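Think of the structure tokens as a kind of shorthand, similar to the way a musician reads notation: each symbol stands for something richer, in this case the local conformation of the backbone. In the example below we present two proteins back to back. Begin with the first one, reading the sequence and then the tokens, and try to describe in your own words what changes along the chain.
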Amino acid sequence: MTEKTFTRREVLKQGAVAAGTATLSAWLPRKTWAAKPRITVWTIGFFNPKADEIVQQQFAEFAKQANAEVNVVIVPGPQITRKLQTAVEGGAPPDLSMIYDADTQYYRSIGQLHEVTDIVGEMKKEPEGLFPPSLVAVEHEGKAFGVPLTLSPWPLHWRKDLLEQAGLDYPKDIFEFVEVCKKVQKPPYLYGAGFCLGRALDGSDNIQNLLWLFGGWMTKDEQTLTIDSPGTIEGLKFINKMYNEDKIIPPGAIGWDDSGNNKAYQSKQAAFICNPTSVYSYLSINDPDLMGKTGLSPIPPGPAGSYSLIDTWAYGAFTKTKELNLVKDAIMWMMQPDRYAQLIEGAGGRAVPVYRRLTKDPFWQERPVFNEFLKMPEYGFTVGAKSPPTPATAEVVDSFILSDMVQEVLVRGVDPAEAAKKAQERAQAIFDRHYKRG
């Protein structure tokens, strides 16, 4: 085949000008061939048809500029983690995919991801830089193995109208939260707290956030587990009380998948849920009235303090790809700040942009509902909390050990101390294997 050499800047220059001034300037040389190269991209659905359309349109524009074929597959968020695991195990991952938080470190550890330090380095040069949690999820020993795409704080979505009708203010702490839930709920039609307690990532994340309020941390440091702790035990007692005594959590929450809490709020069957703003984004398209009645606030503090979860979705370039340079071109095209802002804003507040300066755009500043939400990336905790995401913590989370621990207490009546001990033992086996102990 005939081949010619040119730079990425030459390939994408026209598209960068169309989107605004290109600030990612370190385009590296690459080769292209007369035959069109082809890559497959997996991206999550944004629970917002407009955002999904923007993703497809932007990749289509890139394909045209690069004279390439780009096959974009939109995978529902709850399914992409398992779908990627199956694809990697079968030796056929996509060329490029969105990857959930600590899973980036897992795939890095088993040699599945290309290093992309050059791209992340250029992103860091943007005025005001990147939010720190976005880098924690993708960097290892000073190198980047994923490109941070979105930051997803986990605020409480809450029904302002229900609290106003009951003459109540937003709860000052987690114990007052329980009392507020009791006063506004009308089971079985409306429950106060739509916490996901099922064997799902949302279950693991909701449970972690609740345990943190009582000092129940998964880890002490990168290699030390602390699931079996007084904080975890107290947190389990509190969750059990909410579920079995106060009955403010729907009975079916122990069987929910990642969409269970979304559906509960969207169908007005829960007054509060703890979830990324995929729900708010959904309402902006499908139920503007409920959106207007929705507040976004950090989860109220517990005895150990105020802690909010935040996760990072990243682009990962898999080592199986035969078109690495094209994959890198595609990432840089999507992450060009002006073009990237179109997607983030088109998603209706689905996530916080990784570029700090973009939060000062009118879209965010003209909507008071985002005031507290935009602060969360500055103080939010990632999965694992006391240590950066690691392959070991990723496996613990993906194994639903925390969900199983909670269900032991809620459904089987196991003593919280015994449940915490059993969960620690299961997780310890994973950590020992990763750190080659025992």
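Once you have a description of the first chain, move to the second and do the same.
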Amino acid sequence: MVVPKYGRQDTGEEESSGKITKKEKRRRRSAIITERAKILKPLEERIVRVENDIETHEEELNELNDAMLEASQAHDGKSIVKISQSIQNCQSAIDRLFNELEEITSTLNEQAAVFQKRLDQLDRPGDF
């Protein structure tokens, strides 16, 4: 006997044919999206912080370069040495931040791809 669709109880489990129900598919999709947000959001926030730090250091570097120009024009050797060290430290910080940004971005892209693959697999018929 065939049970009409409206008469079936949807438990959210797999149908007898082995396919997952729409309800179960939505539940799994929601779980993947929630997990993705928990993983990606902190990475995205860290990227914003690092980008802001880079911008701050670049502004500082511009100010130091301006100060170096003034010290050079004034032939102020002590200031030139001090500013030169500050420029070197600032540039090192910028380089370090760019390396960190590259690593975080790479991790973010890898994780996003993993979650996208999981979502794509969920959409493929017959995989579950």
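Compare your description with these statements about the second chain. Residues 71 and 79 are 6 Å apart (CA to CA).
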